[in-house]
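Sample intake sheet
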Amino acid sequence: MLNPLPTYDPTLIQPMREELTRIGFKELRTPEEVAKALPGTGTALVVVNSVCGCAAGQARPGAALALEHAVKPKALYTVFAGQDGAATAKAREVFTGQPPSSPSMVLLKDGKVAFMMHRSDIENRSAEQVAAKLREAFDAHCK
């Protein structure tokens, strides 16, 4: 069973949440919110947020840079691993065939995984390189 209590002090991670919500991501904090939003139709980028260094240095900044692109997903969502465990688990049910990873970025098209960046794809790249991979995925799947 997932621990219903947050792993980290909510006040300490609030700036990490706001780094995504400030640029247009909608937070999905409960399994019910996830079920209502995902899988959905059209395109959606889901960022599985995390407190780790690669989330701070590459994932969140990379997502922000990618959204400066002319082509982008219709919807933007985020769940926070290690904080909103049940919501994150529910989102991962939608990521069929993909192992859990945080941080990660999943581009859904009509409810199916079209592209995914796992932690291993993020941690050894710069924010600019993460953004470039996301923009490639946007061009391929969001037109």
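Comment: The first helix runs from residue 10 to 21. Residues 52 and 122 are 11 Å apart (CA to CA).
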